[in-house]
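#struct-pred

JT: dropping the chains for the assembly here, can someone run the whole complex?
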Amino acid sequence: MTDELKPQSDPQSEAAGSERARAAATPASARRSKRQFFRKKKVCRFCADRVDFIDYKNVELLQPFIQERGKIVPRRMSGTCSRHQRWLKVAIKRARNIALLPFASEI
Amino acid sequence: MEERIYDLIFICRPDTPEEEVNKLIALLEQTAAERGGRVEKAEKWGTRKLAYRVRRHREGYYVYLVVHGTRGDMIQEMERRLKVADPVIKYLTVRLDDELKRQRKLAQRRERRAARRTRKPKSAAAAQQAAS
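RK: done, full complex below.
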């Protein structure tokens, strides 16, 4: 933090110094952004298993896609592909309807 | 007209005697038969915990039926009977034939693709041999 702030505080006094500071700062920020954006590639669980049909009666299958409070886990978190997420959504909603899964859990 | 397949699940009060449940299943079978359908499968899942309270019950006796039929009024009548039945606290009907058809289609397509994939390398090898 302090190392980054110091060069910025005196750029007018020394142009070359500021340039050097910028050059020194860029690799650090690039490294930071790389770390920030690096994510393990998630693979759709259903595609890996070649699932053609998601059964709403299979509670054990649906449970991992339900959050603690009963929300459906978003695609960006579970890595499910859009097609399987669509089927999953329907299955979860049916299971909710017949009290196999909660709409919203108490506590 | 093509036959339709339905899943029918209903939940009874947990204190319902077994014979009452059997009577309900028989009643539904009869209803289906009257309207040109049939109950293909009847499963009693037994008492399960409900995910939320239904009519002040925390548990329920689940019964699962698979119904085949062609006429829409069959399901209507079955649902009406369930609505009227005293021990039933919740029910759900899902039409499944479209999804099963889709499933079959996808499985078929996958099979065909797999067959093509196994054939291709052989032909490629043959071509290579012919070239050399």
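JT: nice. Chain B has a mean pLDDT of 85. The radius of gyration of chain B is 23 Å.
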